[in-house]
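Help! Submission page says 'invalid entity' but I think these are all valid:
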Amino acid sequence: MKTSMWIVLLIVLSGCVSTSESAEFRFYDAHGEEYNSLTAPSNFKKEFNLDAQPKMVIVATSSSSNPEYKEQIDVISKVNAEEMEYLYVIANSEEEQSQGYYMTREDSANILEGTTFKIIVFDGLSKAIKESNQVIGINEFKNYLTK
Amino acid sequence: MADLIFDIKQKKLTWPSKNLSWNAISGPFGAGALPPGLYDISRREITGYTNKVDVPYRDKTGMGFFVPIYPKFNTNRGKTGGRLGIHPDGNKPGTLGCIGITDANAKGFHDAVRVTAPNVKLTLHVK
């Protein structure tokens, strides 16, 4: 009985943590530099003398030919990342796209959780503010970036 | 050997044969810093040093320029979200992948490129 109560308590606590904690993931840049999502925004702010910690976006796909992925990248290319102070990480479970920020194939597959497309928008504190398996349009995307 | 070298970690753009150097950055926005490799600097396409360029391309004097660079390797960078180039790091600090000269006055770089004969092929090594 005591053990089962502890299990219930742990489940409740872990549920609370998952909604209030920042998300931790690893990613790399075109030079092979490794970043941790929990420290990258504050490190970028310091290194580049930014006004605020940049937001992050993960675009996860099972293939670079996935039409939803292509559509999302097209949306992203139309929303000025310098103006909106964000960076985007490609999580491709088929091949690592190492010309920009990217995640390993294994980590990409974990992000996808069996789906073929996912976008996650994080605020400057690395907290996920939107997760979707559908393409996010320009206006909605901008709204999340200004939250 | 390339004419110019951009060292991402040192945040320095150098032109060794002319003994010139500038403080510069690339990233962190968008897809981040320029990928390492060799690039052509399009000497013929450099704009004037002027206040007519967009604010992100102006230095602290209010003047600026843009010179495109073209990767000599296969990459999707620069094909979406704007061209790659070298310009003063105006407006907010940081770039989308271009090389942004952070010196308060970037005219020296502009003039060094501008006095180079248009038929000379300038190359850049990003490391």
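Support: the input was valid. A stray whitespace character was the problem, and the output above is from the cleaned input. Strands of chain B lie at 4-7, 12-15, 20-25, 37-41, 67-71, 85-88, 99-101, 122-126.
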